[in-house]
Write a structure and sequence with these properties.
Elements lengths: L3 H25 L9 H4 L11 H12 L3 H9 L4 H28 L6 H9 L1 H32 L1 H23 L4 H21 L6 H17 L6 H25 L13 E2 L2 E2 H9 L6 H11 L8 H25 L3 H11 L1 H14 L5 H34 L10 H21 L1 H5 L3 H22 L5 H27 L3 H26 L9
Antiparallel strand pairs: 1-2
Length: 537
Amino acid sequence: MSARWLIVGAGLVFLVGYLFYARWLSWWLGLDDRRPTPAHRFQDGLDFVPTSTPVLFGHHFASIAGAGPIVGPILAASYGWLGVFLWLVLGAVLAGGVHDMGSMAASLQHEGRSIGELLRQYLGPSAQRLFLAFAVATLVLVVAAFDVIVAKTFVASPPVATASLGFLILALLFGLLYYRLRLPLSATTLLGLAGLILSIWLGFRFPLRLGEPLWRGILFAYIFLASVLPVWLLLQPRDYLNAFLLYALLLGALVGLFLRAPAVRLPAYTGFFNALGPLFPLLFVTTSCGALSGFHSLVASGTTARQASRESQARSVGYGAMLLESLLAVISLCAVVGLTLGDYQGLLQTKGPITVFALGVGHFLSALGLSPEKGRAFAALAVSAFALTSLDTATRVARFMLEELFSPSGQQVSTPQSRLLFTSLVVAAGVLLAFSGAWQRIWPLMGTANQLLAALALLALTVWLTSVGRPSAFVKLPAFFMLAVTLTALVLLAYRNFLSGKPLLALLAFLLLVLTLLLLRLAAHKVLFSGKPQKFV
């Protein structure tokens, strides 16, 4: 069988999901373009900024599409390609898209506030504090890890570093031209794309070589600025322009796949147990972001909902971006399905998943006349763009959540002092984890923590929809499934880490298990077994 059939099958399922299932979701979630969105109601030129669909989609897609949809499917392919493919496609349509669209819709209908605020209103302040503390801790870990990953990428590929700095300057110019000088979006985009090409060319002509510690410091300084500056000036235009890199990578890889699709040689199923552990739950945890990601709920209800100009953008941006990320994950899977099991295992062990992805995409792009070396360099540039956009968005969202967590009213209130204080706390914690190496000891839990965030977000959506008398089965079923996955994974990780002499990881897994059970107890008492919940004010 040719790998192109995997792309065709995924594309058809995604199209049906978007045209029909996402339309039903719009009705069930009560989306109504006649209601003014938080971006219009609270417009402040800083965080609440009404934004057109193309720009908002670019910001959201670039923010959520980190390294997860690349690394996850390649690692999970050790169980065989079939289970990964089915979870990527069906999971994105029935769970991931629902999770992202629902999180954005809930925020739009709750004044642009976070999932934590949903939990406060329908389960009480304790549920909000538990969720926000867990979410902030997860985001700080993301900040530390992605700072190191991007710094290592810049050291390994100096042209990528030069091009990325060029993108930042370009983003500032784009924001000023579009929002202050009021240039049309089409003209500003054309200028931006020309600037992207120029930045890439300058990267290859003038590669910037700096040490990894220096790059780490520069990146931490950048994310501090990205969190406190107005969203239209740096974060949003950089994500919008970077998204075109991702679109180019997707389009080039898709065309190259159709022209030079490998025959599927990797086994469809290799067994229930392997070095990662049992297929259930670890296939779902390892595949991660390509099918479902808790980080997406933090972005959708954090930065994205505060920029939406219409509620219907929850479908085009929230659900649509999830499907596009899943398509990227299917391409990542296609990068390894042409290998034998022995070759796959050898490459993964010696090169790592990101290099394996770059090799596969370089091969696909060579069908378009691009040399394999140039193709691999372009793939590396796109991966660094993925990680960098997730890095700065994670910092801003963590700042929002700290403002909400420490506000006397339990609601997020932003002031110049709070922006500086809480951004400083997030960056300082990231610096501590990154330079001490502590993030590496905690990172093995990240996949499970991310999926746990998704399960808790789906649980919050269930509580909200039940309380307002709307259908909730479409979020309740994936919530129960992901709770089964994450609770099983946490028990397994706590047990394995304890036996292997890793008490810190065992303790963290146990604490996450306790946190989940506490939230489940609150939800069961208030909603699942007691009818319509009381609403807290």
